[in-house]
Design goal:
This protein has 258 residues and is α/β, with parallel strands linked by helices. It contains eleven helices and eleven strands. The protein is globular, with a radius of gyration of 17 Å. The N and C termini lie far apart (37 Å). The structure holds D-glutamic acid (DGL). D-glutamic acid binds at residues 11-12, 15, 41-44, 74-76, 117, 120, 148, 182-184.
Length: 258
């Protein structure tokens, strides 16, 4: 039997599991090794050179597992490290992109809020994307320092409290289109919709996985009938806390978010 292609996924912590969930919807010969750098999470408030070092270390760790490609399932790591690491490693390095483009194109003239970490908001990659889309006037950047950390701790009540003033501002400004520019925030969809059901939420997960599978030569892979069918995965979390492993399981197995 043909060996499945082994790929690595990395994130600062739990966020990339939302991306892993998206891959697991497909039936294709892949094996996924996921590394959550919980010892160093969250990344979003660190400086770019520290994030580059941490991401490089995680990629080296994944390469020891013999992965043939790596997806930085983290917008922050992508912004701070993808370009450099693509030059350093011989295997393909993929990254995330906030779904601003579909959000703007599918909602012409409407304002779009981008929720992301301070690093993602500040880095060159996003500035370039905004310039290419001529989206500066329509985009409302909302930096969320600390929010990913709440997800990593499984503190969804704290996350809701955190989001309330942000949601109030969106309501006041009449903004209903929201891009989740951090893979952790995908686990907060239900909370966001519970507070404002009219919100139209965008994230980059499904687009990224389609692009990844296509680039790996997996043309038109089938969507499985049950999540998780067909693809094997292994979770590596550098945490000594039991609850991190329980939370990872819970997030991976929940139908929606929390
Ligand atoms: N999941 C990450 C992202 O997509 C990182 C969040 C963090 O570590 O601050 O940006």
């Amino acid at each position: 039997m043909k060996e499945p292609l082994k790929i690595g996924l990395m994130d600062s912590g739990m966020g990339g599991l939302s991306v892993l969930k998206e891959i697991l919807k497909y039936e294709t010969e892949l094996e996924v090794i996921y590394f959550g750098d919980l010892k160093n999470s969250p990344y979003g408030e660190k400086n770019a050179s520290t994030i580059l070092e941490l991401t490089r270390d995680v990629c080296k760790r994944l390469i020891q597992e013999d992965v043939k490609a790596i997806l930085l399932a983290c917008n922050t790591a992508t912004s701070a490290a993808a370009e450099t690491l693509r030059k350093e490693f011989s295997i393909p390095i993929f990254g995330m992109e906030p779904a601003i483009k579909p959000a703007i194109l599918q909602n012409p003239g409407k304002r779009v809020a981008l929720l992301a970490t301070p690093v993602t908001q500040k880095e060159e990659k996003l500035q370039k994307l905004k310039k290419d889309l001529k989206a500066d006037d329509l985009l409302l950047p909302v930096s969320c320092p600390g929010l990913a950390g709440l997800v990593d701790r499984g503190d969804f009540i704290g996350a809701e409290e955190y989001l309330k003033p942000i949601l109030k501002k969106l309501r006041e400004e009449g903004v209903e289109i929201v891009v989740l520019g951090c893979t952790h925030y995908v686990f907060l969809k239900e909370i966001l919709l519970k507070n404002i059901p009219e919100l139209k939420l965008y994230d980059g997960n499904s687009g990224t996985i389609k692009h990844l599978l296509n680039s790996l030569g997996k043309k038109n892979p089938n969507l499985g009938s049950t999540e998780g069918e067909g693809i094997d995965y292994k979770l590596l979390l550098n945490s000594e806390e039991n609850f991190h492993f329980e939370l990872a399981d819970r997030l991976l197995n929940s139908k929606s978010g929390v």
